[in-house]
Design a protein that fits this description.
Helices cover 20% and strands 42% of the residues. By secondary structure, the protein is α+β, with helices and mostly antiparallel strands. It has a single domain, classed as Mitochondrial biogenesis AIM24 (Double-stranded beta-helix). A hairpin with a 5-residue loop joins strand 1 and strand 2.
């Protein structure tokens, strides 16, 4: 199996498949493929053990159904293009070396990936923390590709070293990094600062990847150029967390 990432602002991942190779992708990610590539959409993949495993994967942003791509004979190819300006990052996942990824970061992986939901320790704070509450955990043994928004800034945190990050800018980090939700310090800062009430607290050891582009910021920037009806719909979707979960469960567009 060979892979190639082409482009800069809106990259595309192209994967060449040999007989026996299988690629597992989130729903709605396919861009193009050769005619001899077959698709198999199922809940029983990406490490899901029964219906509950598929549901928790869906809540984390992966989708209740996942799609497997394999060649029917000979060499084939499949491609996945970025949906927003940003980067596609390849990672090698091994037992004891997994990654936690932002809610819609998983793009695809080879067979052997285990995609589950990761929760931080403080449940109550996480509920109010919004984007920082639900993360995807990449485990198993596989090669995987993650989509991050905008430019990527990485940091290597030493043991005990902590960085406070706005939830939307958390792109990915190694599972050795512990994370929690903490409040903005100072009542005036929290109420009038315009940065929300919560930050993600990332503590080393391990590497973290931060993304400069967040979907809420992108939607806010585009709002003046949208019609009144479209703007109202966007606000409704943003407010309806339950609707977003249902779209992920049934494999809708993200």
């Amino acid at each position: 199996m060979q892979s190639r990432i082409t482009g800069t602002t809106m990259p595309v991942l192209e994967i060449g498949l040999e007989p026996g190779d299988v690629i597992v992708a989130a729903p709605g990610e396919l861009s193009w493929m050769t005619a001899n590539v077959q698709m198999r959409t199922t809940t029983a993949t990406a490490g899901a053990r029964g219906l509950w495993g598929a549901i928790t994967r869906a809540v984390s942003g992966g989708g209740l159904f996942m799609t497997e791509f394999a060649t029917a004979g000979g060499q084939g190819a499949v491609a996945f293009a970025a949906k927003v300006p940003g980067q596609i990052m390849p990672v090698e996942v091994q037992p004891g070396r997994g990654y936690l990824v932002h809610r819609h970061g998983f793009l695809c992986a080879t067979q052997g990936v285990e995609l589950t939901m990761a929760l931080q320790r403080s449940l109550g704070a996480g509920i109010f923390g919004g984007e920082g509450f639900v993360l995807q955990r990449l485990g198993g043994t596989c090669a995987a590709w993650v989509e991050l928004g905008g430019e990527i800034v990485s940091h290597d945190l030493a043991p005990g070293e902590t960085l406070l990050v706005h939830p939307g800018h958390v792109g990915m980090f190694e599972e050795s990094v512990s994370f929690d939700i903490t409040t903005i310090r100072g009542i005036t800062n929290a109420i009038f600062g315009g940065d929300g009430l919560f930050l993600v607290q990332l503590t080393g050891p391990g590497r973290i990847w931060l993304q400069t582009l967040t979907m809420p910021n992108l939607a806010h920037a585009l709002m003046p150029y949208m019609g009144r009806s479209e703007a109202g719909t966007a606000q409704t979707v943003e407010a309806g967390a339950a609707g977003a979960v249902l779209r992920n469960i049934f494999g809708g567009q993200r």
